[in-house]
Amino acid sequence: AGLMAFETRSNTWSTIGRLDVSSVTSVSEAQEPVLAAAYVGDTIYGFDAAHNFFKVEGDGYTRTVLGNTGLPIGPAGEIGADYLDIRGMAYDAANQQLLVLGVKCCPEDGWIDEYLGGSVLYSVDLTTGTLTEVVTVSEDVYNIRGLAVDGEGNVYVYSAFDDYFSVVDLESGACTHKCSLQSLGIYASSEHNMPMAYDAATGLVYCLFTSNGTFHQMLSFNPATAQVRQLGEVGSVEYNPDTWLNEGPTFSALLIK
């Protein structure tokens, strides 16, 4: 079976070949841009760019809006504004909760305070989209850009500040480093999220890694061995003479049943 992803350039749900990650096929156009999404059973749940919480069901990818975070969706612009930047989503089957990774606004100056320990894991009410804070991630891990949960409830995050995959303790927020992308000689974009998803069939965490902000590579992270592999470029990359960049598909969500 293929991997499901949300492709932002075409605003479509797409499949990615599991054995050939260069194969990307659009299957349905979305009504709104998607910030993060995950499977819960056979249903896709997610947040769109307006912070609407939705579900997508069936072969026709029918979208139903269930609620909204009620929080501002852009840079705060004023001191003390309650701004939330959604950066990842994953279903924790062991604890039967849908988790969202968010970054809060700094209450003192209105800036995102990810460098001050502002990364927070929330649980999501599947009927309303209401967020409940679970734990604040340790301030030792900055600029977190990805989230995945394995079948035993272990929570993995990726920090674009130091290029580490880490495990988060849901009780304390403490992080334990597992491995770094620097072992491959590659570095993630600090301004783009890294969609991640756990694959129960292989025990691997798959990741869509942004290279230079213009296209993605697929990586696999093995939590058991703390090893990372490059699986190839996702989709086809073409030169854009208007931007002078090599550009390919970009993604905001990666999903695996």
For the structure shown, list the relevant keywords.
257 residues; globular; four-stranded antiparallel β-sheet; mainly beta
Number of helices: 0
The largest beta-sheet arranges its strands as 3-2-1-22
Rg: 17 Å
Instruction: Give the CA-based shape.
Output: globular
Structural class: mainly beta
Report the helical percentage.
under 10%
Low-confidence stretches: 76-80, 113-117
Question: How far is the first residue's CA from the last residue's CA?
Answer: 9 Å
**Beta strand %:** over 45%
Tell me the series of helices and strands, N- to C-terminal. EEEEEEEEEEEEEEEEEEEEEE
Structure description:
It is a single chain. The protein is built from no helices and 22 strands. The chain is mainly β and 257 residues long. The strands form 6 sheets. The protein has a 4-stranded antiparallel beta sheet with strand order 3-2-1-22, with no helix packed on it. A 4-stranded antiparallel beta sheet has the order 4-5-6-7, with no helix packed on it. Strands 8-9-10-11 form a 4-stranded antiparallel beta sheet, with no helix packed on it. Strand 2 (12-16) and strand 3 (24-29) form a beta hairpin. The protein is globular. 40% of the residues are buried.
Would you spell out the secondary-structure blueprint of this structure?
Blueprint lengths: L2 E5 L4 E5 L7 E6 L4 E7 L2 E6 L3 E6 L4 E7 L15 E9 L4 E8 L14 E6 L6 E6 L7 E6 L5 E5 L4 E5 L6 E6 L15 E4 L4 E8 L3 E8 L4 E7 L4 E3 L4 E3 L3 E5 L2
Antiparallel strand pairs: 1-2, 1-22, 2-3, 4-5, 5-6, 6-7, 8-9, 9-10, 10-11, 12-13, 13-14, 14-15, 16-17, 17-18, 18-19, 20-21
